[in-house]
Amino acid sequence: MEPTPQKSLDRIISQRAVQMSASLQCKTWVLGFFCGICIAYLFLVAFNPYKAAEFGVGFTNSLAAVSTNSSTFSLEVDKNAGCDFSSKDIGNSAKFEGSNQPSDVNKAALLYSAWTAVLDDSKDSYGEFFNRGPNRTSLPRPPYVEDCKMNVEINKILDMRGENGSLPRWSLWKGKLGLELFRVAFTSEEQKLQAAFQNASPPWVLGSDEDNFPLTRLVQRHLWIHQHPQNCNKPNLRFLVADWWRLPGFGIGAQLAGMAGLLAIAINENRILVTGYYNRADHGGCQGSSHAHWSCYFFPEAAQECRDRANELMKTKEAWDDHIITVKDNYTSKEIWGGRIPRVWGEPWNYLQPTTDVDGNLLRHHRKMDRRWWRAQALRYLMRFQSEYTCRLLNVARHSAFGLEAAEMVLRTIRSWPKESVDSSLSDIENFVWSNHKPWIPRPILSIHVRMGDKACEMKVVEFENYMHLAERIRRKFPNLNSIWLSTEMQEVIDKTILYPHWKFYYTNVTRQIGNMSMAAYEASLGRETSTNYPLVNFLMATDADFFIGALGSTWCFLIDGMRNTAGKVMAGYLSVNRDRFW
């Protein structure tokens, strides 16, 4: 006779209790956990049942709940203590029966812990765990996860030419529906119809043309065609091969700005840009062929055939003598950082909409309009598709930041869980039509990047209070705004969030600077993997946010603004606490 769900759960808890009893560290954690439950009850229920809505989330990979002050809170679980459940423990039998039902707060914590176990234990894509057929798990689906394997599979199709050298099927329906259509053999009439859509726009540009920088769709299409020729072995093709900068003073923003300059040179000289060694991907998280390469984080900048061809030519003396191959050292710093912007599309920067606010006034014109437009286009192309590794990083970030909040939201619609299992099978409309929807995050949300520290030698730095003053200006216009994604390297900024209890703050849980130190020294203290992953997560979250506040004098903010302006967010505007130092 099969055990009842209640007995199965009792067995799981009993086994865990035995493991926990041997761990002093775990005993301490359990005691602290139940104390935390009592405190949470007092604050969330006894004093004010709506107080939880004011809390923010500082996230880490092992987060279970959140903050040590009035605006953020965090509870970290040591996974080595043997206290965490695994996905094997959860299974399909994690159901409760009888009259002793957990409270809504405990149910949300239980669901969050179950999602965490799936995230930690799953060797494949987090999203794929929930897409293995009907009733694969009794867990409700977390609304903030993406199926990274499926995304990469779809994007690979959208990033490669057809068998006859035709452009990718950018006119396909989106998401999994387009993937299924791609697998179907076309009739001759359907092939003619596909040929009629050869002028389709790249799918990585979102929003209307008016919501992006001028000519964004056309430029992105041309950049992709330039970097993915029909035949990479043509004798007249030329290449610019360049490693990424690796000097200690070069942050990620400087590296990206420099590569945008090299892409401009490649376009002007009709060369294909091929990147080489990327020091920030030289760590244990980047595996296989993507190790120490840009492709660890985003799709390669050129067709693989062209990359292979360029590497072959690098070994031949004739290619160097005939300037078929050039490298970074063939160009001066002025040519890379301040060289001529490609004008094959005219001068579209002359038509930029004035949507940047400085000191309460719109910035209508400055001396670097062309560079602002071009860097946005270059960065949008280089980051057009995320790798599976980057997708998983964002799944972890959203889970840790928004997971508990999402669990509470999901359980408001599934009141019977965990007493009754949830049917995890998907209808066709869920599986195909809705597959392309973005993962859930609390909206509207404002991203703020506070740059201080050693940046004072390059620009005017301002205090956190100035940023929050601009945040209040936005909220006066949009009173439903109360969430902030905060990125900063300074601990003093995080400490000041307690002064703003009516805002909900989310931020990465990493060691931050106390006092002044150089960015190079700070990154070295974090290690290469952490010092690369968490800024890129912040960067992409800022790109996706509804509003953005930063400092134009910061290259990082400059690039975030560019990514937003090629992602359909021109009319969201940009509030800056200062002017760019070069304008």
TrEMBL record:
The chain crosses the membrane at residues 29-47. It comes from the Eukaryota. The keyword Transmembrane applies. GO terms for molecular function: alpha-(1->6)-fucosyltransferase activity. Keywords: Membrane, Transmembrane, Transmembrane helix. The keyword Protein transport does not apply. GO terms for biological process: protein N-linked glycosylation. PANTHER family: ALPHA- 1,6 -FUCOSYLTRANSFERASE, ALPHA-(1,6)-FUCOSYLTRANSFERASE. This is Alpha-(1,6)-fucosyltransferase. It comes from Dendrobium nobile.
